[in-house]
Structure formats: C-alpha cells, structure tokens
Amino acid sequence: MLKLKADELKVLNILQSAQSATPLKKIKELTGLSERRIKEVIETLIFNHDIAIVARRGKAHGYYIAKSREELEIGLKEFKQQIRTSELRLRKLMSIEF
Description:
The chain has a two-stranded antiparallel ribbon. The protein has helices at about 5-15, 25-30, 35-50, 70-95, and strands spanning about 55, 60-65. Helix content is about 65%, strand content about 10%. β1 (about 55) and β2 form a beta hairpin. α1 (about 5-15) packs across α3. It is globular and about 50 Å long. It starts with 5 loop residues before the first helix and ends with a helix. The chain is built from 4 helices and 2 strands; from the N terminus they run αααββα. It is mainly alpha-helical.
C-alpha cells in the first residue's frame, strides 16, 4: 500500500476517479491547492510512487493516469513534442547576441 501525504492523496483520488483528462484548473478547484503545488504533487506521484500520470493537450486537455501502454504512449508522444519545442526555444534564446 502506498504511503501518501494528504496533498498527494487529494490529487490521486481526483485522477483515479476521472473518466477523462482533468484540467489543472479543475484539480485546483477541487483540492484548493495552487497550480504550482499540484504540479509538484504530480511529479512526486510519478517519481516516488511510479504512477503513470500524463497530460493531454488540446481541446480535451488535462492530466490522467494511463491505464494501458497505449494510453501511456499517447501521453508520451505529446510530452516528447513539448520537450522538442522547449529545446528549440532554448537554442534560439542562447543564440541571441547582445
């Protein structure tokens, strides 16, 4: 059984009971936690408790727990694209001369 802190349990319960991706604003509304704290909790759940939480972007955006390898791969595809975009932005910013 997982030993979770109160904030972790709040976020996990919302994501486990959701039928689809849950937007950050909805998690904030339901938990009373700040957006920053929710993101910290999600990172903790992933890194410390091996819970496969991924995010969906676009119209049906939000966080969800992948329940299959296929769902995980969909979330990873979007995450990888975000990383590529961030890398491009980083390279561009580093190339700006003053």
